[in-house]
């Protein structure tokens, strides 16, 4: 309403000013001798002007202030500098190694040949004429065993020396009669003959030998 009242008051002031100017003009015309009729018509036109007061406009609330800040301008990165002078690619030199030296095999002496296998001349005791001297041992049947009718088998183990003779005798299995056991070893020492044992070089050596003497009465 205040805005409408101010506008209407302004219009009135303008009308008053215009009327005042007209009166001044009329007075001036009268003073200067202007035609009365012309001035009269002009006064009538001016005075008959209808001054219409404008309708008061509804007051509208002022629009809210724009609180949005304008978006920042986009950041434009300057284009990268263009290096017109292009340097040539670096040249890499590779040192070529010399070829490896040839491998010369070292001649090694051949291993010595293995010695020839040694021929062994060793052998064991071998009885010589066993049937003959075994019969002589049995013929010397002890008289005490004959009188008592004692019979039996005696196992003996003898040591034959390099000369082929029995150097020692022992009973390996008894007949149960001391008379027959003693007679068996005595007969081996007296009658038994052997080819002695030989070592690897073929030399005669001592060795053991065993047998059994059977005593039977006819």
Reported CATH architecture of the domain at 126-215: 2-Layer Sandwich
Q: Give the total of beta strands.
A: 7
- Main sheet properties: 3 strands, antiparallel
In percent terms, what proportion of residues is strand?
Answer: 15-25%
What do the pLDDT scores average to? 77
Query: Element order, helices and strands?
Result: HHEHHEEHEEEE
Structural class: alpha+beta
Which sequence of strands runs across the widest sheet?
3-2-7
The CATH homologous superfamily of the domain at 126-215 corresponds to TonB
Q: Helix count? A: 5
Do you know the CATH topology of the domain at 126-215? TolA/TonB C-terminal domain
What is the radius of gyration computed over CA atoms, rounded to a whole number of angstroms? 85 Å
Categorize the overall geometry: rod-shaped
Gap from first CA to last CA: 184 Å
Summarize the amount of helix as a percent range.
25-40%
> What's the CATH C level of the domain at 126-215?
Alpha Beta
Poorly predicted ranges (pLDDT <50, ≥5 residues)? 1-5, 46-51
């Amino acid at each position: 309403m205040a805005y409408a009242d101010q506008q209407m008051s302004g219009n009135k002031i303008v009308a008053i000013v215009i009327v005042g100017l007209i009166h001044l003009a009329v007075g001036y015309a009268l003073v200067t001798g202007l035609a009365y009729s012309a001035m009269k018509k002009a006064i009538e036109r001016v005075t008959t002007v209808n001054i219409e007061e404008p309708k008061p406009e509804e007051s509208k609330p002022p629009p809210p202030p724009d609180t949005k800040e304008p978006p920042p301008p986009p950041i434009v990165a300057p284009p990268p500098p263009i290096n017109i002078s292009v340097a040539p690619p670096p040249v890499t030199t590779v040192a070529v190694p010399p070829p490896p030296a040839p491998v010369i095999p070292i001649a090694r002496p051949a291993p010595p040949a293995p010695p020839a296998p040694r021929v062994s001349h060793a052998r064991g005791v071998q009885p010589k004429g066993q049937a003959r001297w075994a019969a002589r041992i049995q013929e010397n049947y002890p008289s005490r065993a004959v009188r008592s009718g004692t019979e039996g088998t005696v196992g003996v183990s003898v040591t034959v020396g390099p000369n082929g003779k029995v150097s020692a005798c022992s009973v390996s299995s008894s007949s149960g009669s001391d008379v027959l056991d003693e007679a068996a070893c005595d007969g081996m020492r007296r009658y038994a003959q052997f080819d002695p044992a030989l070592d690897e070089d073929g030399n005669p050596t001592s060795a053991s030998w065993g047998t059994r003497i059977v005593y039977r009465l006819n």
